[in-house]
Structures are given as structure tokens and as C-alpha cells.
Write a structure and sequence with these properties.
By secondary structure, this protein is of the alpha+beta class. It folds into two domains: 269 residues, Aminopeptidase (3-Layer(aba) Sandwich); 189 residues, Alpha-Beta Plaits (2-Layer Sandwich). It is 29% helix and 26% strand. The chain has ten helices and 22 strands. Helix 1 runs antiparallel to helix 3, helix 3 packs across helix 10 and helix 6 packs across helix 7.
Amino acid sequence: MNIINTTTYHDAWLSDLTELLKIPSVRNDAQATTDAPYGPGPKAALDFMMAIAKRDGFQKVGTVGNRAGYIYIGPEDDEQPIGVIVHVDVVPVNDIDQWQTDPFTPVIKDDNHIYARGADDMKAAVMLTYYAIKAIKDAQLPLKHQIRFIIGTDEESEWADMHQYFAEEGDLQYGFSPDGAANLSYGEKGISQLDLYFDATNPEDAPIKLINFKSGSATNVLPGFAIATFSGIPVNDLQNNFDQYCQEENISGTLSQNGEQTVLTVQGVATHAARPETGKNAATYLANFLTQYDFKGNASNFLQFVGQKLHKDPYGEHSGYGKSEPKLGKTSQNVGITDFINNTTGHINLNFRHSLAFDEAETVDQILTDEPWLTNIVRDPAGLVPHYVGKDNKLVKLLADAFQSVTGKLPDQGVNGGASFGRLMSSGVGFGIIPTDEPSTAHGANESFNLANYQTGIDLIVAEILALSDNL
């Protein structure tokens, strides 16, 4: 058990967390500047963290290129510092109609959860980590190793913040990221993002035409909303078929008329791209419904690909793109973005969380062979290779023992499909504080954090930091 009394920090933690949650720290390249390279939101969140660190008397505080921040405690001449890496940026809100409250107006409801974008991923954990480190500082405990609390602002996009941080501050061998569930992830799958392009066209003489189709705006989110506009389908039959389809699939949707054009929307269930099996991809459901109608040309190719080949296929088993192996398990497949605007270039983004058996170049060749109507596939250079530390690593064992000292039991351990900043350290892991029996609300509507997790969460982080500092 911890020798530090952390109960006294609760009210200050909640106050600072509430202020952090109010900041819409979504990347916005259109408003990027030298001072705010990812837009004003992420920079405001970083500035807030730096301000409270200075308020609370931390001595070693700074930023790197306005992209990442750091708060260090412990011996400055340490040759083996320990990293604790978090992020304050959040994913966009693309399903605002499903939110019961404003995503950036934090609300505590009767269930003792605080609701806001970023509450789960990962601002509550950011503030728990901050106060855990503050508690260690305030207690004036001796540290064998320097603790480097590193705050990123681009985790939900390209991780360029961390690239610059490590280039300037040096690499780390040991550490963890308290992101997500309390599942000690000694392995993380690789990430491959493929952008598929095609001519979004309908034959001139086609009786049914797809005017546009849109879903998603972030590659690491399974989209919960999709909209399509088309012409040439009788509305009466369409309405009955659509109502029946929504009922059978347990989704919701709307149908409206705009002159001679019909507009359909589908509301699915958004979730994190690392867990596509837990959501309902609105894009594939809407495309699947439309495949029963006689679209022609690339409109048909697009709908068949998204609505048949990729529909209800979270592990790429039907498409054939998912590859599995014993160490990292199955590859997951997410259709993150779909764009079809008639007579323009269409776009489909695929996000794979992959095992060691997955080969990106081979997958590109396979897709182009299977789908000759595609004109090009662009591979995202920001993709990540798989990261595997193994359950017998000393850091993994120390973290597991620290967890047991607080909770009385060993943590769940295994491989994670998500990508935490823990993988940036050669012996780093992802190890969050949210109980594994609580469903994740990350990246979804009505995202929340259970305030009852405060005490265990802060005590876990204190115990884990001290265990690594004392024993590595």
C-alpha cells in the first residue's frame, strides 16, 4: 500500500479536471500556427497543464516546440529516467446528435460519472497522473530515478509531438502510459492506415444515381453517423424497406426529400478503431442497405465494397485482409472515413490494428487486385510497427506487483489493439487505471469517467511510479 495520503487531493483534482475538460483540444490544422502547431485547442490544453505545474511549485517544467510538455521530478543527473507519458488532445465530436449534454461542458450526473469529450481518453487519467506526481513531490520522498511526466498534444493523429520531444530530450527505455483500461499491455499491435482513392462517378444513363455519401472524419474512430444522397428510387418502397432494415439491425435512421433527391442517414454506435467489434459502423450499415438497389458503375463498386465486403467484418476475415498469429492475435479492420461526391475523387480510409503476420505492402497489392476500380492507395507513413515487451519483462512484473499492492489482485495482462505512448519506450507499456469490467466510452457519444475510480486510480499511479523508481 502507498505511504502517501492521496485523499486530500480529490477536490483539487476534480476542479482542475473540470477545467481541462472544458478545453476543446481537437487538432485543427486550418488554425495551426507556429505557436499552436495543432491548432488552438491542443495548445490551450498544454498551456493549462504547464500553468498548474508552475502554480504548484514544480521546478523542472517546460515545452518542446509548443507540441509537448514535461514536468520532471527526481535526480537530474539520472542516466535511466522513467517516462510516464499522457496526452491532452481528443478526437473530434462527429456524433453530436447522440450526446445528451454539450461535449465540452463537463457535467456530473446521478451515476457519479463526469461526462465530456476526453473524460475517458484520457484527461481524467492525465490529471490523476499529475496529482500522483504532485503527491510524491509534496511528500518529499527520495527517488532513485528521475520521473519524466511527458504531456503530448498529437496522440490522436500523427504523434509528431513525441517525435520532436524525443529528438530534443533523448530516448527512454522504461516507462508506461496510464491510458485506457487497467490492462497491463505487454504488447501492442501495429497500426496501418490505407487511403483508397477512386473516381466517384455514376454512368450518365444510370436510372439510380448516388450523389454523395459521407461518414467519419477521424481514422481512429469507428463512425457512428453516415449520410447519403441519391436519386431514382421510389420513396414509398424505400421508406418501408429502410424502416424494416433499421429495426432488424437495431440501428436508427432518417429519410427525407430534397426535391428529386432522397437523403438517408444512419445512426450506428461509434467506438475506438482498436475495438471495432464493440461498435456499429454507420457507413457500412448505410452502404449495406443501399446495395439492394441497382446502382451502376463506381457508385455500385463503392457500395458493394463498403457495404458487403467490409460490413460486419471487424477482424478482416471476410475481406481476407486480417492476418493473425499467436503472439499478437487477430488483426482488426476499421472503415474510418468514407467520401463519395459525384464526379470527384472518392476516398475510403481503412485502419488496421495488426499482428506480426500482417504485411502492409501485400495488403495494398491484394486490395488493388481484388478491387480494380480503385485508382490508387496511399500508405500512411505515420503507421506504427507492432511493439512487444513480453510478460516476463522486469518492468511488467514490477507494475503487476504494484497493482496487486493496491488492489489485492494481479491485473489483467495481454496484448492491446490500441496504441499508447508506452510503445515509444523500448521497454514501455500501456497500463491504464479504468477497471477492466467497466465498458470503455472512449471516442464515443456521452464519453464519461467514473469518479469512484479516483482513489484507486491515483494510488495505483503513485505505487507504480515508486515501484519503478525503487527497483529498476
